[in-house]
Amino acid sequence: MRILTYRGTPLWRDARVLRAVTQIVFVVIVVAIVVYFVRNVFEAADERGLKLGFGFLEEEAGFPIAESVIGYTESDSFRHAFIVGVVNTIKVALIGIVAATVLGLIVGVSRLSSNWLVKSITSVYVEIIRNVPLLVQLFFWYFGIFLLLPVVQESLRLPGPIYVNNRGVFSVWANTTSSFDSWLLFVLGGVVLAVAVRVILGRIQIETGRNTHPNVAAALALVLLPTLGWFLVGESPLIRETPVLERFNFVGGARVTPEFAALLTGLVVYTAAFIAEIVRAGIQSVQRGQTEAARALGLSDAQTLLSIVFPQALRVIIPPMISQFLNLTKNSSLAIAIGYPDLYAISRIMINQAGRAVPIMLLIMAAYLAMSLTYAIIGNIYNRRVRFTER
Amino acid sequence: MKQKRFVAFGSLLVVIAIVVAACNGGDATPVVQTVIVQATPEPVSNRLDVVQDRGRLICAGRTDLAGFGFLDSAGINRGFDIDLCRAIAAAIFGDGNALEVVPITASERGPTIQAGEVDVLSRNVTWTSTRDSQWGNYTTIMFYDGQGFMVPKRLGFDSALDLDGTTVCVTSGTTTELNLADFFRQHNLDLETVVFEDTASVYGAYEAGRCDATTSDKSQLAAIRSGFSDPDAHVILPETISKEPLTPVVAHGDDGWFDLVKTVMWVLINAEELGVTQANVEQQRGSDNIVIRRMLGVEGEFGQSDLGLKATFAVDVIKAVGNYGEIYDRYMGPNGESFTLPRQQNELWTNGGLVYAPPLR
Predict the structure, then answer these.
(1) What residues in chain A have per-residue pLDDT under 70?
(2) Are A368 and A90 in contact (CB under 8 A)?
């Protein structure tokens, strides 16, 4: 009855109705487009006899992979090969993110330096690196730098010994022995003791105002206990493994391949240039009055930067920084150009060897999406912590 | 904020679900397939009509390998594989230049022909049983090859079995990389591989000394070696570790087109057998050999009308590219413009080789 006697705004002019209707229309259009393309995939696949299932993942991969963190042989399954790729991507992304952040911070702060030389060098760095495509840079690092290092037989020998040649960097490495586990207990004890010492002495310093040197004491605890343990456990817990030149290559020790090195260097140098700009913007967003107030209180330059400016700059820096981390991870798919077996490169091989383009493309997208969303979640949580607390 | 977090978590869950479903392997297959409710089997479009309407043939090839697919100094696509495409274009249009070559990498070959993006794939494609069932229809073996190893001479290798502990550069998405892994596993040899998508990168890294050896079809190794600054500093080891029958491929689902491409290939081989060459084809139309007269469309019929081609298409084909032997010699013969590779198994069957084609009748 109410509707019949309704005399208010007509439906087609009612803002609420219009809003609801446009949203419904929009959703219907989006759904229709998605349905169309999904059906298209299934129909085209059916017409051309393509198989869409994931069953092939259990079949033997059969192709070699140059490097793997988790172990791989050609007789492993496609699924395992894919996971090798995911782990390789995570490896380069994590190391890359840490290194790019450190380099970016240094460059970003240096760009604001009052030292003309430092400022100019970092400005030139940022402007050149940001404006040359990453793929070009990767080719440069790989073919122009790492492959032009001396051949194996004429390796550069650095103290350590560390050997550098165009098959990679080979370094001495510590191998664990049977007593390693017992020694690890001493190390953990050292860490616990160091934390305890730092907290207790720190508290005393605050209460009494006496300098108790909490950091020095903690460092001592951290060093002394493991050293003591080293001699107590009997057999040395770690032994040196030195790379030895055999007929074709160095064997033993730790190794970084030129593909990994070139990819990591390329990603770090490229991303750090963007991070530097973000850091610079963040620092400049902090009002000058803050610095002046800190100076007036007698804080040194370093103290001003670390205790006053930086904490305030962080809230501007964090969100764009996370998007740089995402970029670095996604850009690592350019590894395919220089022979590093990352997620994308291995998937491309799988597409060809297994002949299943659509399922593998879905897997690739799912893997990158999962990584990116994980960053986003971690980043959002961190971002919430560094936000200004509004009272 | 809360909502955003929910969305992020939700999306992550969806992704994890996809991955888990994927990793459950076989179990997921029927689920996906039952979704196909009404896949209407549309009448297969006729590739020949599509090509004729378009006015040119689209062929997936390469531009980076001397002898098989390269750009000459005038920027024109040339090479053994390309001439096979030219032959098909000539059969349809009477003009071997009614051709567009799409350069692709090795690992793009499968998806490209599966999706039917090109009319023909002629890019050093090895015919294997898996690829036959997945990629498309394999027409006729046009080049019998085998995989070998190339090493710098200074390393002093005599045999591929000496390669224990070496690093090998290889192109991704090829039978080469699979055979390489098989060979080293079979002989219990230690192997380090460096895999590149792009052929130029493989040989760039090999030449820079990143690898002790590189492996590919022997014809390709010969081609690459010819392009090195000092070809004599590299040797191709004697072992042939695989069969690599290189074959032009068409997409699944169009029998007429499949037959057409096969027949054009057979014309090339039969023409050599019958001594019909680019130079003498006009004159051979007056030949009194019935088989030649039939092939050149002077009398009789060998299926031209069923294929949708004109009776004398073979004349156009031979005029455009010559016969099989002429194509081979143009690039790889004793005076070949790219390099010289003895024909060996690529001789005609009448000369003790493997090259053989069904009769045209």
Answers:
(1) 1-7, 49, 388-391
(2) no
Domain ranges of chain A: 11-47, 78-172+254-386, 175-241
Cβ-contact B136, B251 below 8 angstroms: yes
Token digits of residue A140: 């440069």
Q: Are B169 and B196 in contact (CB under 8 A)?
A: yes
The DSSP result for B124-135, as a single string, is SPBP-HHHHHHT
Same fold, B47-144+246-351 and B147-242: yes
Whole-angstrom distance, CA of residue B290 vs CA of residue B283: 14
**Chain B residues in contact with A384 (beta carbon < 8 A):** 1
Just give the CATH number of B147-242: 3.40.190.10
Q: What is the pLDDT confidence band of residue B45, given thresholds at 50, 70 and 90?
A: low
Q: Is A348's CB within 8 Å of B39's CB? A: no
Looking at CA atoms only, how far is residue B333 from chain A in angstroms?
32
A289 to each of A284, A293, A304, B189, how far by Cα in Å?
Answer: 12, 6, 12, 69
What is residue A352's predicted lDDT score, i.e. its pLDDT? 84
- Domain limits of chain B? 47-144+246-351, 147-242
State the Cα–Cα distance between residues A259 and A133, nearest whole angstrom: 18
Task: Tokens for A390, please give them.
Answer: 């509004």
Mean pLDDT of chain B: 88
Percent of chain B surpassing pLDDT 70: 88
Residue A291 CB neighbours (<10 A): 17
Whether B165 sits inside 8 A of A167 (CB atoms) is: no
| Both tokens assigned to B292 | 């030649």
Q: How far is A313 from chain B (nearest CA, A)?
A: 21
- Find the angle CA(B110)-CA(B116)-CA(B122) to the nearest 5 degrees: 60
Q: What residues of chain B lie within 8 A of the CB of A57, using their CB?
A: 22-23, 25
Q: Which residues pair with B71 in a beta bridge?
A: B77
pLDDT of B33 above 50: no
Please report, as a single letter, which amino acid is at residue B166.
T
Distance of alpha carbon B76 from alpha carbon B69, whole angstroms: 10
What CATH number matches the domain at A78-172+254-386, 1.10.10.10, 3.30.460.80, 1.10.3720.10, 1.20.1250.20? 1.10.3720.10
Cα gap A222→A216, rounded to integer Å? 10
CA-nearest of B48, B80, B113, B71 to B250 is: B113
Contact A166, A155 (CB under 8 A): no
**Pick from A267, A258, A269: nearest CA to A143:** A258
Alpha carbons A270 and B128: distance in angstroms, whole number? 42
Residues in chain B: 361
Distance in angstroms (rounded) separating the CA atoms of residues B260 and B119: 12
- pLDDT at residue B38, rounded to an integer: 41
CATH number of the B47-144+246-351 domain:
3.40.190.10
Average confidence (pLDDT) over B145-152: 94
Radius of gyration of chain A (CA): 29
- Two tokens at B53? 């309407």
* CA-based nearest residue in chain B for residue A355: B134
Q: Which two tokens stand for residue A203?
A: 């508290």
Q: Is some CB atom of chain B closer than 8 A to the CB atom of A71?
A: no
Q: What pLDDT score does A11 carry?
A: 79
Residue A156's beta-bridge partner residues? A164
